[in-house]
From TrEMBL, chain A:
Molecular function (Gene Ontology), one example: ribonuclease MRP activity
Region annotated Disordered, chain positions: 1-31
Gene source species: Cladonia borealis
Domain of life where this protein originates: Eukaryota
Cellular-component GO terms for this entry: nucleolar ribonuclease P complex; ribonuclease MRP complex
Entry's Gene Ontology BP terms: intronic box C/D snoRNA processing; nuclear-transcribed mRNA catabolic process, RNase MRP-dependent; tRNA processing
Protein name: Ribonucleases P/MRP subunit Pop8-like domain-containing protein
All copies of domain Ribonucleases P/MRP subunit Pop8-like, residue ranges: 37-113
TrEMBL record, chain B:
GO-annotated biological processes: endonucleolytic cleavage in ITS1 to separate SSU-rRNA from 5.8S rRNA and LSU-rRNA from tricistronic rRNA transcript (SSU-rRNA, 5.8S rRNA, LSU-rRNA); tRNA 5'-leader removal
Gene Ontology CC terms, in alphabetical order: multimeric ribonuclease P complex; ribonuclease MRP complex
Organism domain of life: Eukaryota
Molecular-function GO terms, alphabetical: ribonuclease MRP activity; ribonuclease P activity
Name under which the protein is recorded: Uncharacterized protein
Length: 145, 384
């Protein structure tokens, strides 16, 4: 009896799925995302022009070391616990993602930091909650000759 | 804990909406009221347009689309505001023709001017506004209330009263001659430039530097693809929100050329914990990203979108592989207060393979679904 009952419910569920299937894509729905989970930053490593004539490329491990150094200097051990995900490293540029709550701490740590006896420092080129906008920039370079 | 200002809510948000694309769109009467077309037209000053699609789809449709796609060009020119009201420039570009212009300057900090459909918008600081003698509206600043620090003046130069000799017009001429008289760098787009390229246009007097926007092509080999079919309408709100956040992030990573989405990527989790959601290692795709940079008008983007979507539902041969394209567009900020900063439209062919759970049900309907493939879109509108 019990097994029979479960069979009918299973059939009903299956039936339900079949009827909702054709409308699944044609129907429209919308929502607003507030408070996205991450902040994305585009950072540039600045090196003093005295030590090297051209900007040397930065590799991912060096970048990680510099960021950890900046965070531990500013916030101590708690600063190093901020999770940073490296999305792309290219030349002197770096695209990273941090939880949105840690953005203020990270930007604060980066802006006060100089490493290697004042030879290197970070600059925040762009930041935002939407990675596409951070990658695309603000278009200001088009005005420059 | 450290006394940082708490970020409880973020000012940035995204509206995500889904819907189905019209099966047929008349090229003579392009839609303007319906989403996603309304969103495209709502964003007049664009600096970056990105198109992402699988390499197989690119190979089969792009040469055709590129043939029909009108070329787009823009110029960089240095001139003062008063030039807008001078003789030929005023008659040919503003009264009879149509141009799009945007001046340099940081929104909300510097004075910024823009011209669109004959309406000139001046975003001015209080001191300048009070000196120039034109009537404008207060711009609500983000910070302190009841402090009027910036004003926006909007002048429709196509009104019949906007003629040399009329009183209101002479007032504008005076302001441009005596107050707003500095030379600025402008980006300039002429909607009728292609029609008569041989005749010298009035802009030539100001020595413009003209660029033709041609796409920059980048191919990402063997990209892991998440489940692009969006959750059913029966699924929960949270599930849909999760899916839209992850998919947008993935599309942006591919557009930015990040190695994290590649199949061969072997980064240590200490450096990045990003993982492609629901990735299947055997299913990887080569993706092509085309990027246009310049002052790009909305009408051109709509033309591109219409060409792509017209090609799109007729791709019976591609059923079974991932069939999609994503068009992203990022705009210049023209005001400091929150406005749309960009959007992404992801178009999907309703692919029966992607819904593995109901495979047997779909199989019985397979013959029907291939005969009238319905494509749907997911639209992200980003507010910064």
């Amino acid at each position: 009896m019990a097994s029979n009952h479960s069979e009918t419910t299973a059939a009903e569920v299956n039936n339900g799925a079949e009827t909702t299937k054709p409308t699944s894509h044609s129907s429209s729905r919308s929502l607003t995302i507030r408070n996205p989970p991450y902040t994305y930053l585009h950072l540039i490593l600045l090196t003093s022009t005295l030590s090297s004539s051209s900007q040397p490329p930065v590799d991912i491990l060096t970048a990680r070391t510099y960021l950890t150094s900046a965070l531990s200097q500013y916030l101590g051990l708690t600063g190093t616990a901020i999770p940073i995900d490296f999305l792309k490293v290219e030349g002197g540029s770096l695209w990273i993602r941090v939880p949105r709550e840690d953005e203020v701490a990270l930007v604060g740590a980066l802006s006060q930091w100089v490493g290697k006896d004042g030879d290197v420092s970070w600059r925040v080129k762009a930041k935002g909650e939407w990675l596409g906008s951070v990658v695309a920039g603000n278009g200001d370079h088009l005005f420059e000759p | 804990m450290f006394g940082f200002p708490e970020l409880k809510t973020s000012s940035s948000r995204a509206n995500v909406s889904t819907g189905s694309l019209a099966k047929y769109v008349d090229p003579q009467q392009p839609p303007s009221k319906k989403k996603p077309y309304s969103v495209i037209l709502n964003q007049p000053f664009n600096h970056t347009v990105q198109l992402q699609l699988p390499e197989a789809l690119y190979d089969s449709i792009w040469s055709d689309v590129a043939d029909k796609l009108p070329s787009v060009q823009y110029s960089r020119v240095i001139m003062p505001l008063s030039t807008l009201l001078e003789g030929e420039f005023f008659n040919l570009y503003i009264k009879t023709g149509n141009i799009l212009m945007l001046s340099e300057g940081r929104p909300g900090i510097d004075d910024k001017y823009s011209l669109k459909d004959g309406v000139l918008r001046l975003d001015l600081a209080k001191e300048i506004y009070e000196r120039c003698g034109l009537v404008g509206k207060v711009i609500q600043g983000g910070g302190r209330k009841h402090v009027k620090s910036r004003y926006a003046v909007e002048i429709n130069l196509r009104l019949p009263s906007m003629l040399h000799g009329k009183k209101g017009f002479e007032r504008i001429v005076w302001a441009f001659k005596n107050v707003l008289n500095s030379s600025r760098t402008w980006l300039f787009h002429d909607f009728e430039a292609a029609l008569d390229s041989k005749v010298e246009r009035p802009i030539a007097k100001h020595y413009p530097v003209t660029h033709i926007c041609s796409p920059h092509l980048a191919t990402s080999q063997a990209v892991l693809v998440p489940n692009l079919a969006h959750p059913h309408c029966t699924s929960s709100h949270d599930e849909f929100e999760h899916w839209s956040l992850e998919t947008y992030e993935w599309l942006s990573l591919v557009a930015g050329g990040s190695p994290r989405v590649l199949r061969e990527d072997t980064v240590d989790p200490f450096l990045s914990r990003y993982q492609v959601p629901d990735a299947n290692a055997e299913k990887s795709l080569n993706l092509v990203t085309l990027t246009w940079v310049g002052l790009i008008p909305a009408s051109w983007i709509r033309a591109l979108f219409m060409l792509l979507s017209a090609k799109f539902p007729r791709l019976e041969s591609h059923v079974g592989v991932h069939c999609f394209f994503a068009l992203s567009d990022y705009a210049f900020k023209t005001a400091s207060n929150s406005e749309m900063g960009g959007y992404t439209i992801l178009c999907l062919a309703d692919d029966p393979d992607s819904n593995g759970a109901d495979a047997d049900i779909v199989e019985t309907q397979a013959s029907k679904t291939t005969s009238h493939l319905e494509s749907c879109y997911i639209l992200w509108e980003l507010m910064a």
